[in-house]
Amino acid sequence: MMKPITLKDIASALNTSVATVSRALSNSSEISEDTKQRVVEYAKTHNYRYNTVAKMLKTGRSKNIVLIVPSLDNRFLSKLLSLLERQIALIGYHLIVMQSHSSPYIELECLESCYYKGIDGLVILSMGSGAVKSRLELMVQEGMAIVDINELYGSMVSSFVEADWRSELEDRITTLSKDISRHIVEQLN
């Protein structure tokens, strides 16, 4: 198994600096198009993959947002997941889904996992236990972007979850997913 190629390896092969290679791969306007093209071609030819952990340490961002829901066996929540994933991708983030299986204990475990893994944002349809609310408050105080769907859209979500699936709900769910995404973006900036 070959050792993965690094920025330093690319810089050495192309007789340039690591900073130039990094900027070229980030499509920086400080780097000439010719240099960008050489760096990108070399990186592709040698199967370069950027180190997401190093990028996270440098930028302080994981580019991950977590959605915690009781279960995905509900048509509303499945549709919301699908649309929200698209909205999150449009802003350059990845959506990670966790299910609490309607257990406040599991929901708290999900929150703890999110807290210690350095996610950038959280969207939650909470069961509403006191311990969960306390943990959410702490995470907000520490600057995490959080959208509590129940808090913002409680009665609307309840009617969606309990309703029979109808095509007219799709427009309302689309609007909801865009609104949730907008709330996360506002907090991230």
Overview of this protein structure:
This protein has two domains: 7-50, no CATH class; 61-188, Rossmann fold (3-Layer(aba) Sandwich), CATH 3.40.50.2300. Residues 156-166 have low confidence and may be disordered. It has 189 residues and is α/β, with parallel strands linked by helices. It has nine helices and four strands. The protein has a four-stranded parallel β-sheet with strand order 2-1-3-4, sandwiched between helices. Strand 1 (64-69), helix 5 (75-90) and strand 2 (94-99) form a beta-alpha-beta unit. It is elongated, with a radius of gyration of 21 Å. It has helices at 7-14, 18-25, 33-45, 52-59, 75-90, 104-117, 130-141, 149-162, 168-188, and strands spanning 64-69, 94-99, 121-124, 145-148. Helix 2 (18-25) crosses helix 3 (33-45) and helix 6 packs parallel to helix 7 (130-141).
Mean pLDDT: 81
CATH architecture descriptor name of the largest domain? 3-Layer(aba) Sandwich
* Structural domains: how many: 2
Question: What characterizes the major β-sheet?
Answer: 4 strands, parallel
Structural class: alpha/beta
Separate helix tally: 9
State the CATH class of the largest domain. Answer: Alpha Beta
Number of strands: 4
Instruction: Extract low-pLDDT stretches.
Output: 156-166
Distance between the termini: 41 Å
CATH superfamily of the largest domain: Response regulator
Order of helical and strand elements: HHHHEHEHEHEHH
- Order of adjacent strands in the largest pleated sheet: 2-1-3-4
Helix content: 55-70%
Q: Tell me the β content.
A: 5-15%
* CATH topology term of the largest domain: Rossmann fold
Shape: elongated
Query: Radius of gyration from the CA trace?
Result: 21 Å
